[in-house]
Specification:
The complex is a heterodimer. By secondary structure, chain A is α/β, with parallel strands linked by helices. Chain A is built from eleven helices and eleven strands. The chains are: A alpha/beta, B alpha/beta. The structure holds iron/sulfur cluster (SF4) (4 copies). The site of one iron/sulfur cluster has 13 residues of chain B, from helix 3. Chain A: Keywords: ATP-binding, Nucleotide-binding.
């Protein structure tokens, strides 16, 4: 079983449209993970049938018992996350800012602080219209631990994929922080989607550094390549300097947006559109790469 | 006043609106711009600041004195994040799991743990186009915890410019980093696009903002491509629509070249200012009621 992640330094580059198209092409050979737990959008294109749902309680948060509290405010001075404030002389926990470290509980001499579990998010397994299993989740509003949630999703999906499938396809989360690291580590191939804008180029450099840091083979895809030829050339140059293969350059394609509005991946909406052709070429190259890797 | 600019995910035009707003308002007011999207700070591309100062953001990291440690394991028992483990009477530290809470130093009965520091990222300050005061945070590559850098960034800004009109470009998403960035803002602009993705992300971001009790309004980017149910959602929740940015390929091209809405031929400065005025109206009304 081989794992492929689709990543982009930032949202809005067409990452989810591409992953959905790849999921469509892979069909029942793949288990799909939507690791963008902050903004899980893949399900909107996949028309899923829910099979399983589970609430996850991982975090904890400090709760103050005001019957016992003597307002010494020692706890406030020890919290390194500014999650304890003083309001009208009383310590108040900001449950959103609280990391659950337990330092305040420890320093309170009056046993006035208790640690209680809090909802991290919900985990789902669904079946998509293209016959793949979709592992996805929704972080509780302002929830933390998105990195851990991604790791959990991946582990669950890996169990399933290892037993019966050829590929694990991951729609990564944007950025370069904890959830991204969790979706990148240990995969066989990372497809990095970028756009020829100055800002995306910056993101691309960071994400390439990250892939390299973790030793993950990676290719680049330029979406909306004709938006700025100058920037596209810069990405070409960057890739050749860094020895990274440019998998595909896909021109600006109105069909991507049109397909999104109807809620299906581009490749189903118009199999001949430039984006669909790009997606097919990408999937072919990814498969070839993984096969070659297996042989070596 | 602190105005945060957020969106459920990246790519909705949040940074474009934030920098355009800063530039449009800079003619009449001193502006502080804060790029709190520390994982992918991009505002500098549009505002072109001269960076004058850079500070390292550090956080607590335990330094274990093996000479003093007797392997009692109290620190490992305490550490909620499993960053410390006792193996054969020796304490092992896993820095990537550490949240820098400082608890281990506190609980060690031997005084074997001392406060050390690790770099989480940097904050940078400078002067940008039109005299805008510019701040940004940058997370160190490979460093998983963004909120630490955002907290420091906001602290520094608040200390130096407590009363200046401040525009904060927030990280995408609706989780811890966003919450850290918008917390203590007076108003939050939620930038969205009229697609099913846009609506789904808007809902998540709105929920987070609502929990924090921060008043907000919506700006629809790429207006005209469809409905996407945004209007219905805003009406249902009573979220004011502050304005729209039309969908044009020329805007995407401008963005690609590092230009803002208030630059070049099809200058949308008036539309951007109208968004700011709508925001002022909403906040004034909110303050009066
Ligand atoms: S340390 Fe305990 S007693 Fe003191 S203010 Fe905090 S909760 Fe109250
Ligand atoms: S548990 Fe930790 S983060 Fe939460 S309030 Fe207590 S000291 Fe602060
Ligand atoms: S500082 Fe906190 S998280 Fe880090 S090792 Fe010590 S107890 Fe664990
Ligand atoms: S609490 Fe102190 S003495 Fe005990 S194992 Fe940890 S470092 Fe060593």
């Amino acid at each position: 079983m081989k794992q492929v992640v689709v990543l982009s330094g930032k949202g809005g580059t067409g990452k989810t449209s591409l992953t959905a198209s790849l999921a469509y092409l892979a069909g029942d050979e793949a288990v799909v993970v939507d690791a963008d737990v902050d903004a899980p959008n893949l399900e909107l294109l996949a028309e899923r049938k829910p099979l399983f749902e589970e609430p996850l309680f991982w975090g904890r948060s400090a709760v103050i018992d005001y019957e016992r509290c003597v307002h010494c405010l020692l706890c406030v001075s020890y919290c390194r996350f500014s999650a304890l404030h003083v309001k009208e002389g009383l310590p108040k926990v900001d449950p959103i800012g609280c990391e659950g470290c337990g330092v305040c509980q420890r320093v309170c001499n009056f046993s006035a602080i208790e640690m209680r579990e809090k909802l991290t998010g919900r985990f789902f397994i669904s079946k998509t219209r293209w016959n793949n299993f979709l592992f996805h989740a929704r972080l509780a509003p302002s929830g933390e631990n998105s990195g851990k949630l991604v790791t959990y999703l991946r582990r669950k999906a890996e169990e399933k994929a290892r037993a019966e499938k050829k590929y694990l396809l991951i729609d990564g989360s944007p950025g370069i922080g904890c959830p991204v690291i969790s979706s990148l580590v240990g995969v066989d191939l990372a497809i990095l989607v970028t756009e020829p804008t100055l800002s995306d180029q910056h993101d691309l450099e960071r994400i390439v550094a990250l892939a390299r840091h973790f030793g993950v083979p990676h290719f680049v895809v330029v979406n909306k390549a004709d938006l700025s030829l100058k920037n596209r050339n810069r990405i070409r140059e960057f890739c050749s300097l860094q020895g990274i293969e440019l998998m595909a350059e896909i021109p600006f394609d109105q069909q991507v947006l049109d397909a999104l509005m109807v809620g299906i991946p581009v490749i189903e909406y118009d199999p001949q559109s430039p984006f669909s052709q790009g997606a097919r070429a990408i999937w072919q190259k990814a498969q070839d790469f993984l096969k070659a890797q297996e042989r070596s | 006043m602190v105005i945060a600019c957020a969106s459920g995910k990246g790519g909705t035009g949040k940074t474009l609106l934030a920098v355009s707003l800063a530039l449009a308002c800079s003619a009449s007011e001193q502006i502080v711009f804060v790029d709190a999207d520390v994982e992918a700070p991009n505002a500098h591309i549009f505002l072109k600041p001269d960076i004058e100062e850079e500070r390292v953001v550090e956080a607590f990291s335990p330094q274990i004195d093996e000479g003093k440690c007797d392997g009692c394991g109290e620190c490992a028992d305490f550490c909620y994040f499993s960053a410390l483990t006792l193996v054969k009477g020796k304490v092992l530290f896993f820095p990537e799991l550490c949240h820098s809470c400082g608890g281990c130093e506190l609980v060690c009965p031997r005084g074997a743990i001392k406060e050390g520091a690790v770099e989480k990222g940097r904050t940078r300050k400078g002067v940008a186009r039109e005299g805008i005061v510019f701040w940004e945070g940058r997370l160190k590559v490979g460093e998983p915890r963004a909120p630490a850098v955002i907290t420091e960034l906001k602290k520094a800004v608040k200390k130096e410019f407590p009363d200046t009109l401040t525009i904060v470009d927030c990280p995408p998403g609706a989780s811890c980093a966003l919450v850290e960035a918008v917390r203590d803002a007076d108003f939050c602009i939620l930038v969205t696009e009229p697609t099913p993705f846009g609506l789904s992300d808007l809902k998540a971001a709105f929920q987070a903002i609502q929990e924090l009790g921060i008043p907000c309004g919506v700006v629809i980017n790429k207006a005209g491509i469809g409905g996407g149910g945004i209007l219905g959602f805003c009406e249902e929740k009573g979220i004011p629509i502050l304005g729209e940015i039309p969908y044009r390929r020329s805007i995407a091209e401008k963005y690609a070249r590092g230009l803002t809405l208030v630059d070049g031929e099809d200058n949308l400065k008036r539309e951007v200012l109208a968004i700011y005025q709508a925001l002022r109206r909403v906040t004034l009304k909110g303050a009066g009621s």
